[in-house]
């Protein structure tokens, strides 16, 4: 059973940057594929970024490509989401997710993940 805790959210202006962190415990982080998802008010939770267990491959939703970067530090059991050039449409609650099952790939479907954090709110004003 893994526990995930996000931090780093806040209220910023358009064009600003934030770095979200997701600290994990209780599992084998170094063997877990990880992802970031977000849910805007009144919308479904959507995929944002994914990273393989090794950190060797990443994937992003088109709307954040070139602005967001997912990374991980297996020694610290932490996954990050660096968000640059924030836009008002990035406003959402951001949650990290961990895959508890074996898998060497990238996962964009919520159903592929077994553990979730409580989320951290990001608000971007114009």
| H-E order | EEEEEEEEEEE
The total count of strands amounts to 11
Strand fraction: over 45%
| Mean pLDDT value | 96
Task: Give start-end ranges of low-pLDDT stretches.
Answer: none
- Principal-axes shape call: globular
For the CA atoms, what is the radius of gyration? Answer: 13 Å
Helix content: under 10%
- The assigned structural class equals mainly beta
User: Can you summarize the main beta sheet?
Assistant: 7 strands, mixed
Number of helices in the DSSP assignment: 0
**Alpha-carbon distance between the two ends:** 40 Å
Can you put this structure into words, describing what you see?
- 0% of the residues lie in helices and 47% in strands.
- The chain has strands at 3-7, 10-13, 18-25, 34-39, 46-51, 58-60, 68-73, 78-83, 92-98, 115-116, 120-125.
- The strands form two sheets. Strands 2, 4, 5, 6, 9, 10 and 11 form a seven-stranded mixed β-sheet that branches. The protein has a four-stranded antiparallel β-sheet with strand order 1-3-8-7, with no helix packed on it.
- It is globular.
Produce a short descriptive summary.
By secondary structure, this protein is an all-beta fold. 0% of the residues lie in helices and 47% in strands.
List the helices and strands and how they pair.
Elements lengths: L2 E5 L2 E4 L4 E8 L8 E6 L6 E6 L6 E3 L7 E6 L4 E6 L8 E7 L16 E2 L3 E6 L1
Parallel strand pairs: 2-11
Antiparallel strand pairs: 1-3, 3-8, 4-5, 4-9, 5-6, 7-8, 9-10, 9-11
Key words describing this protein structure:
126 residues; mainly beta; seven-stranded mixed beta sheet; four-stranded antiparallel beta sheet; 0% helix
